[in-house]
Specification:
- This protein has helices at residues 2-5, 17-39, 44-59, 90-105, 125-130, 165-189, 192-201, 206-224, 276-302, 305-331, 452-472, and strands at residues 63-70, 73-79, 109-111, 137-145, 148-157, 226-239, 243-246, 251-256, 263-264, 269-273, 333-335, 340-344, 354-355, 360-365, 370-377, 389-394, 397-416, 419-428, 440-451.
- With 473 residues, it is α+β, with helices and mostly antiparallel strands.
- It has a six-stranded antiparallel beta barrel.
- The longest helix is centred in the middle third of the chain and has 27 residues, at 276-302.
- The protein is rod-shaped, with a radius of gyration of 50 Å.
């Protein structure tokens, strides 16, 4: 059937002006009554039965049949006389032929045609075969919604007044009124994927369908196209090594010469501890050393070997104590072990505060050697290997991505904001002059290539697999 391969037709034809004037009021009342009856139906099958029954009663037909186009075929769905539309009978075959003839010609068809009919000539072979006797008449009209054929109606009258052009125009108008209601009921019962397809292709011109197909092909190609996979997370910049300056002995903070953020030179004094007690102790041992040395000289002059040995031992002891005090005085002045930057330890507000031996006062880091610590989620750590490269963008330098290389992967995870992360250590391959330890940013590590569809759905698929395994075992 040719109409099924091209289901788009013109709008519902209207009767001529001479015929429409007396028919419109009655057709309008009939159309409203039909729509009201159809809107009370819960299913499409019920609506089809009500439609053919109401048309037969209101327009005086002996039998009204309805067929719909479904998946490229024409199917009989309702007959007003109560017969089974699915029964394979000769009458059903004749009905389908007449309905198909109506759809093929995209307009109303009736037989016999009255004399003097000046309308568009129609092929009426199937309609003539459906009328069993000479006095019978048959009319068929298509059901159209949004210029798309839904199906057709076939109305039969036996031995009565034949269907004329005015009655056919009225039937076409009624078909235009009931077709949208039937289409809504049918669409409501269709599966969701068919409704989605229908919404995408409804009232779409051929070039639009080609465009939709091209867009779908591009979307599939984009999902299958392999691109680089980047893994990573929050990153922070640290010195390659860090040196902690601790308190050598119990004492008090006397002077502070550097604060966090200051650049220092090797050998520069950073903190001085109070040394008044050590100064007094040094003077005491210096005095005792001088006394023992004078006594040694006197014993040597008298050739008193016993006193000479005794005073020599006491002088050595005093010298050792004096050297110890000098060393403690020297350690009380904390100096920078290398050129670097003070990253921790602000003692400017703790002058005179007591400190205990072993307390950390300051932390220094070199200003020319850095490492990047990247926090990688435990779900991605299996794809990180030594030697992989990547980039890091620091908050202070958002427009400058610095290259890096992975040098170490921590074997132990730690909890950060409710997530388990592994610390991955990397070295910078480029070092701008304005870098400082403590800067934070975001790092991305190259982990090969994969299709875009897998990249976008990997987390969801892995979570679903884990949940399924935990539930199913």
């Amino acid at each position: 059937m040719s109409a099924l391969s091209r289901p788009v037709v013109t709008a519902c034809p209207a009767p001529s002006a001479a015929e429409a004037v007396p028919a419109l009021p009655a057709a309008g009342r009939t159309a409203l009554a039909l729509q009201a009856a159809l809107l009370h139906c819960a299913t499409f099958d019920e609506a089809g039965r009500v439609a053919v029954r109401e048309l037969a009663q209101r327009l005086g037909f002996d039998r009204v049949s309805m067929a719909l186009v479904r998946e490229g075929t024409l199917q009989l769905v309702a007959v007003s006389d109560g017969s089974d539309p699915q029964a394979a009978t000769p009458t059903q075959a004749l009905l389908l032929a007449a309905l198909g003839e109506t759809i093929d010609q995209q307009g109303g068809v009736f037989w016999p045609e009255p004399r003097g009919h000046t309308g568009v000539p129609r092929i009426t072979r199937a309609h003539r075969a459906l009328a069993p006797s000479r006095g019978d008449s048959v009319a068929g009209v298509p059901l159209v919604r949004h210029e798309t054929v839904l199906g057709a109606l076939c109305c039969e009258r036996q031995g009565g007044v034949p269907v004329d052009a005015h009655e056919l125009a009225t039937l076409e108008q009624l078909a235009c009124f009931i077709a949208p209601v039937l289409a809504l009921l049918r669409d409501r019962e269709r599966p969701w994927h068919q409704r989605l397809h229908g919404a995408a292709t409804a009232r779409a011109a051929p070039w639009r369908r080609v465009l939709l197909a091209a867009v779908a092909a591009l979307a599939v190609a984009a999902l299958a196209w392999p691109t680089d996979v980047h893994l990573g997370g929050q990153a922070r910049l640290e010195g390659a090594v860090q040196r902690v300056l601790s308190v050598p002995a119990d004492g008090f903070v006397q002077q502070v010469h550097a604060r966090p953020g200051d650049s220092v030179r090797a050998g520069q004094v950073l903190v001085e501890l109070a040394d008044q007690d050590l100064q007094l102790e040094r003077q005491r041992w210096q005095s005792q050393l001088a006394q023992h040395q004078d006594a040694w000289a006197t014993a040597n002059a008298r050739a008193d070997r016993a006193q000479l040995v005794q005073n020599q031992s006491r002088a050595d002891e005093a010298q050792a104590q004096l050297d110890l005090v000098e060393a403690r005085l020297q350690r009380g002045r904390l100096v920078a072990p290398f050129d670097g930057l003070v990253v921790q330890g602000d003692l400017s507000q703790q002058l005179g505060a007591p400190v205990r031996q072993g307390d950390a006062l300051m932390t220094l880091a070199p200003s020319d050697r850095f490492r990047v610590i990247v926090e990688v989620d435990e779900r991605d750590i299996a794809q990180i290997t030594l030697g992989q490269t990547g980039t890091v963008a620091l908050t202070a330098l958002p427009w400058q991505a610095l290259p890096l290389r992975v040098t170490r992967i921590s074997p132990v995870a730690r909890a950060v904001e409710g997530c388990n992360v592994f610390e991955v250590e990397a070295v910078l391959l480029e070092r701008p002059a304005d870098l400082r330890p403590g800067l934070q940013g975001h790092a991305r590590i190259d982990a090969g290539r994969a299709a875009n569809g897998w990249r976008w759905t990997r987390r969801l698929v892995e979570s679903a697999r884990l949940a399924l395994w935990a539930w199913w075992g």
